[in-house]
Amino acid sequence: MIFMFSRVLIILCLIMSSSYAKNNDIQKQLDIQNEIIEIQSKRIDQLEIIIKELKNNIPSRVNSNSSHSDQTEEKQEEIVTEKSEDVISSSKNKIYNPETAFFGPLPQLRSADGKYSASVMGLIQLESAVYNQEANYNTNNDLSDGFIVRRAGLTFAGVSEKDWIWFLSYDYADSGDNPHDGLRAAMAIYRGFKPWWLFVGLFGNSVGLDASNFSSQRQFMEAAMPQAAFIYGAGSPAMGVAATYRGDDYYLRFGLYGEPYKNASTDDEGMGVHGRLAWQPYKERFKALHIGATGYYRTANPSNTFTNGLRDSTLRFRSKGETAVSGDFIVDTGIITDLDNYYYMGYEFAMVEGPLSLQSEWGILGVNRKTQANPQFNGGFFQAGYMITDDARNYNAYFAQFWRLKPKNSIMEGGLGAWEVALRASQIDLSDKNIDGGNANSYTLGINWYMTAFTKTMFNILHTDSKGPLSEDFNSIGARLQIEF
Which of 27, 92, 358, 475 could be stapled to 351 by a disulfide with Cβ–Cβ 3.0 to 4.6 Å? Predict the structure, then answer.
């Protein structure tokens, strides 16, 4: 009996030992597999790091039909052929790629080798205004209510051999912004000497922040009175050559320009050196600080006619106020005679902090005459805007200006678009020495509705008071429908 019990006990022990051994083998195999998995995970992590480094170091080529442009936005030196609507996404707070400010939403035509591209862009601004004015006993001017086509332009633009950008722009409305028979720009840009860019042809005159913004991207329907008078009066657009330089936290632009292209004279053309310098300690799209200086120095463009024995020039400074539907000027120096040279010096300031934006400019315009007293004129503005919706004004550090805003909730996607309220106060004084051009103050409340990135409606409620030979005190309500394509 004892012997039988011993045999059973031995058999049970052997079975348990065998089971334990098998469990031991299984555990060892599991441990080995876990080690293998850990090694593979580490290798995958290393591969992901290598892939990211390769993406950062190897230029990416983005197909124009793709809707993903995040990588190309980060590579400012590469050609971007993506639709502007993708590149300006408000959901990303990045600095600009150099080409996003040039090309519109339409697809580009491109050569098979990718070295040449071309596109068509358009702008339509339809405007209306009603006026309520006080009687002016000096004149019989009547500020007329009505409707106008403020601008109706087509632009052809493209890239050749990667480093050449070209433009040809025509405004069919020819609405008083100094184009010659509607020709607004005919220029070429060479960017092969990075970070320098070189410009040649007919284009804007490189002075001032508000004047450097495209008309389609301003916060109000019209440029502020002093900037429109002092900067456009000196010539814009004009034939010239210019250069830009972009540092880590600053932007420099300067150039040599002739007279406004539409001015006609049989004498030597007046010439001028123009420039801007902007410090940009913060230059993200929706968090930016811009502090700058701007100005020009120009020689006279003499005329063949005389007034009171003094030679005329083509120079005059004037303004209709900050509305364009009525064509009456409310301040005007008239043609400045006996002119030798003239200059402008001013500052620029802009700030964007989320929904809040601020912008200001002020400048002095000095006129040096040969035998007469030398007058000085001055003026400036301050404006502030606040986005009611979850959007922000879009600062373009690459060109030291503001650019297109894409609403986070476009009406095409069932949203309300982007809504902005803005206020501006401006002042201009064109009376000094023996020139009585008058002075004016203007106050504007603006409401902007950005329906999509390329469609905008603007409402301006304006009060203007002025003194001088042409003075008009008036209130106006203006509206604009703007479509870009």
Answer: 358
